[in-house]
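Input structure tokens:
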């Protein structure tokens, strides 16, 4: 036993300097999710601590140890090149957070209580922005975005995606391929840039309004009170709060 002791001590010393890694996988053994900053992950869910700054996404190349701020990095993925973004995960930024996020498909993100959230998802995602937060997001196809509670949302939507802008929120909506839907309620301000060849659908306080034609920029699509029709704009929509109504409402 004594002869083996030096080897055992050496092994324990080597083990102590190996960086610890924690991985949170998506459903069905999908890609791993990385959390960096004032955050933690459990299963496929990651949460940013109140007032914290967090980055959520795939395992970063060359990472593999805790960052010293309570967050967890995930070890380097096998093979060369960047790992794919994680699928079927949820990110939570609930109180005065600054969050940067990247995910694949089937992801859910909550940005609340004066938080700032930026990032993107590839498809079939749900993004909730509320409580006077600011959200600058890019979604893939068939995604849903909710902007409520006096929040500012600058969102780039892909075909088949919908944004709901309610209360006193302001939404600047870019749909470069067309075929998106904007649902505006209350006194929310919605500016729409619709590209591609398909019109972008608009609903104002539960009623279908005139579409924003493909290749058009439509400013304050429901009017200042949320009950008007689509209004033509000039050369660009800018941010939601700064968007001005056009010269006249379309029938």
């Amino acid at each position: 036993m004594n002869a083996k002791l030096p080897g055992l001590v050496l092994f324990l010393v080597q083990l102590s300097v190996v960086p610890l890694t924690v991985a949170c996988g998506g459903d069905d053994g999908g890609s791993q999710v990385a959390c960096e900053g004032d955050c933690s992950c459990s299963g496929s869910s990651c949460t940013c601590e109140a007032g914290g700054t967090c980055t959520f996404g795939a395992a970063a190349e060359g990472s593999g140890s805790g960052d010293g701020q309570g967050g967890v990095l995930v070890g380097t993925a096998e093979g060369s090149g960047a790992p794919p973004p994680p699928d079927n995960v949820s990110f939570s930024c609930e109180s005065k957070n600054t969050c940067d996020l990247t995910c694949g498909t089937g992801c859910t993100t909550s940005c609340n209580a004066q938080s700032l959230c930026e990032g993107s998802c590839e498809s079939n995602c749900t993004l909730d922005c509320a409580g006077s937060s600011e959200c600058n997001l890019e979604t893939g196809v068939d995604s849903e975005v909710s902007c409520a509670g006096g929040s500012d949302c600058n969102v780039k939507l892909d075909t088949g995606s919908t944004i709901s802008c309610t209360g006193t929120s302001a939404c600047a909506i870019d749909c470069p391929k067309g075929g998106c839907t904007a649902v505006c309620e209350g006194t929310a301000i919605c500016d729409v840039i619709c590209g591609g060849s398909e019109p972008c659908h608009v609903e104002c306080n539960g009623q279908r309004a005139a579409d924003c034609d493909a290749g058009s920029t439509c400013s304050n699509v429901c009017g200042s009170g949320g009950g008007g029709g689509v209004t033509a704009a000039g050369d660009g929509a800018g941010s939601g709060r700064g968007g001005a109504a056009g010269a006249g409402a379309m029938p």
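DSSP finds one helix and 20 strands in the chain. The first strand starts at residue 24 and ends at 25.
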